[in-house]
């Protein structure tokens, strides 16, 4: 019986971006092709890999994509982790470039102080156990923690794990009736390697399947009076492939050994295709199921490219493939199928697998008992499951967006199948996730800019008013200057009239024969008519000055009103933009994964 227990803290996920500097070159004519392997250390000192980065080609100072480590995987923030940097080699023999041992808490501290940790090479035997410290360093460029739904959350929320098995019946296993055969049924009841793998893996997964009906196939054998089959029902039926429980698989396996003739070659493509069809039908029926195909084999596959094509096609489906290699054969090609060893699988058409769905374990490597075959096989199942489910959620959100928006953005009444397919490709390739993150970053930047504008706007009115007041004062001073010039001209004219009046009076004294004219002129100026003449002269000028002053004041008032109206409109726009952003965030929160409900966690964790 396997029990699972999960605390709230185990849902915390650490998101990190790691990089290295000054890595040693292991390749002869080029730089290294580095990748990281993060492992947790068991109580017995065994390293269990929990995360691997992508391979970066020809790079001495690599910076890998962000990685996610849950507390559930690590154990706790203080649990020691071993981070190893390898140089990738296509033959599977990767060169160790250095490693460090740090907990999540220590990695977080490295990020906070912006310092690196020197890599070291473990000491060889006879070197006094002194590690060789390298100039290469590991840096943590980003570290953050958030709460995410875990593998157990989804199982408690109603997701089922459906177990499927495919058994190798090729002749390389040996005659089942002889003790040296990998298919030999021991009368004492001791299970062979095939039976042990079925019991250990199926014994764990059967509790997460509601009906416990498991598809079981065989491949590489010749049924009675028939050709060699590379995918036949283990129960002997021609119409259905399911058996009842793990005991049903064991009975069907034993029966098949006496009803088929071992043949060959070893082909995986047909079995994987059948499993993919079952998973595809589940998706079409909108079922909350995830399928796990266990393939047990003793030899090297002969349809490597066809198997790659089948694996790449299956990477879009809720399916993981666990491969157990039994016997002493060379399993190098199996290492190729396991995408953890390098780049993702690529089909014959050039299509790359959307995610890693394969885990291969040689049975001979886990027979010591320190790490069980189940522990090794299921180590990556949670991450493979979560990768599929989270991508599936993005697809469902997109479909709802098509329905809600009516494709108004694109001008379509409904999305075509081609457009849907293209979107799925973008989601599964990671493009859509990067686009969403980029959009979120743009929203955050826009929000910051809006806040900055809002803060600046509080200072704008006073500055504008002061500026406008200065301009108005300058204009008033200019206008007053013009009026002063006009007054000066009036004064000059008055002085001129006075001089003329004085000259006339002087002329009247000296010229008596024109006394009558002089008297008339004196009377004209003496009774104040000269002042009236001056005022009459300046009336048009005064009126023009008054009009200019009025127009100037009206223009200033209009400018101030327009300025205040513009500031009010800007404030309303900023408020609407903030409300729109808040509504968008609320809408995204509402569309998030529904919390697991309605399941009895204790029953799920038996």
From TrEMBL:
Keyword Coiled coil: yes
Residue ranges of domain C2 in the record: 1-118
Keyword tags: Coiled coil, Repeat
Stretches for region Disordered: 584-606
GO molecular function term, any single one: calcium-dependent phospholipid binding
SMART domains in the cross-refs: C2 (SM00239), VWA (SM00327)
GO cellular component, one term: plasma membrane
Domain of life where this protein originates: Eukaryota
One record GO biological process: cellular response to calcium ion
Database matches in InterPro entries: C2_dom (IPR000008), C2_domain_sf (IPR035892), C2B_Copine (IPR037768), Copine (IPR045052), Copine_C (IPR010734), VWF_A (IPR002035), vWFA_dom_sf (IPR036465)
Coiled-coil annotated residue ranges, if any: 440-489
Family: Belongs to the copine family.
The name this protein goes by in its record: Protein BONZAI 1
Organism this protein belongs to: Sesamum angolense
Origin organism lineage: Eukaryota, Viridiplantae, Streptophyta, Embryophyta, Tracheophyta
């Amino acid at each position: 019986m396997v029990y699972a227990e999960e605390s709230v803290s185990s849902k915390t996920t650490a998101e990190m971006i790691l990089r290295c500097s000054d890595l040693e070159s292991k390749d002869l004519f080029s730089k290294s092709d580095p990748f990281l392997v993060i492992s947790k250390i068991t109580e017995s000192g065994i390293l269990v890999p929990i995360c691997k980065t992508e391979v970066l080609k020809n790079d001495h100072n690599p910076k890998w994509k962000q990685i996610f480590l849950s507390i559930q995987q690590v154990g706790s923030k203080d649990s020691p982790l071993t981070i190893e940097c390898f140089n990738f080699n296509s033959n599977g023999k990767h060169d160790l470039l250095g490693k460090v041992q740090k907990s999540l808490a220590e990695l977080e501290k490295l990020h906070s102080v912006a310092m690196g940790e020197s890599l070291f090479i473990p000491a060889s035997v006879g070197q006094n156990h002194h590690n060789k410290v390298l100039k290469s360093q590991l840096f943590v460029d980003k570290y953050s923690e958030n709460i995410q739904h875990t593998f157990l959350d989804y199982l408690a929320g109603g997701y089922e794990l459906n177990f499927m098995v495919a058994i190798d019946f090729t002749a390389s296993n040996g005659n089942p009736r002889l003790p040296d055969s990998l298919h030999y049924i021991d009368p004492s009841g001791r299970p062979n390697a095939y039976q042990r793998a079925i019991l250990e893996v199926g014994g764990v997964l059967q509790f997460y399947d509601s009906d416990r009906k498991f598809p079981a196939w065989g491949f590489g054998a010749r049924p009675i009076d028939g050709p060699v089959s590379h995918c036949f029902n283990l129960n002997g039926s021609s119409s259905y492939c399911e058996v009842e429980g793990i005991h049903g698989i064991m009975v069907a396996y034993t029966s098949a050994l006496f009803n088929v003739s071992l043949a060959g070659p070893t082909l995986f493509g047909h079995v994987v295709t059948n499993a993919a069809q079952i998973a595809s039908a589940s998706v079409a029926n909108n079922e909350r199921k995830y399928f796990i195909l266990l393939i047990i084999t003793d030899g090297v596959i002969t349809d490597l490219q066809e198997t790659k094509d089948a694996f790449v096609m299956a990477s879009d489906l809720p399916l993981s493939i666990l491969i157990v290699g039994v016997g002493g054969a060379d399993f190098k090609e199996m290492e190729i199928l396991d995408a953890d060893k390098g780049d993702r699988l690529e089909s014959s058409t050039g299509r790359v697998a959307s995610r890693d769905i394969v885990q291969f374990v040689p049975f001979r490597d886990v027979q010591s008992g320190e790490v069980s075959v189940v522990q090794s096989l299921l180590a990556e199942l949670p991450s493979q499951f979560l990768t599929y489910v989270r991508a599936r959620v993005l697809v469902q959100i997109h479909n709802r967006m098509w329905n809600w928006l009516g494709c108004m953005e694109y001008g379509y009444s409904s999305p075509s199948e081609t457009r849907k397919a293209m979107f799925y490709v973008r989601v599964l390739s990671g493009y859509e996730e990067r686009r969403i993150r980029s959009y979120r970053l743009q929203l955050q930047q826009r929000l910051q800019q809006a806040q900055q504008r809002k803060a600046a706007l509080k200072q704008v009115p006073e500055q504008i008013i002061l500026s406008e007041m200065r301009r108005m004062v300058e204009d008033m001073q200019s206008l007053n200057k013009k009026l002063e010039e006009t007054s000066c001209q009036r004064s000059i004219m008055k002085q001129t009239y006075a001089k003329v009046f004085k000259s006339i009076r002087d002329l009247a004294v000296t010229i008596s024969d024109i006394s009558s004219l002089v008297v008339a002129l004196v009377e004209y100026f003496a009774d104040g008519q000269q002042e009236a003449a001056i005022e009459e002269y300046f009336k048009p000028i005064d009126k023009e000055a008054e009009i200019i002053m009025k127009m100037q004041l009206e223009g200033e008032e209009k400018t101030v009103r327009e300025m205040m109206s513009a500031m009010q409109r800007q404030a309303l726009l900023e408020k609407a933009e903030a409300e729109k952003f808040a509504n968008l965030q609320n809408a995204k929160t509402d569309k998030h994964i529904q919390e697991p409900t309605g399941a009895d966690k204790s029953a799920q964790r038996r």
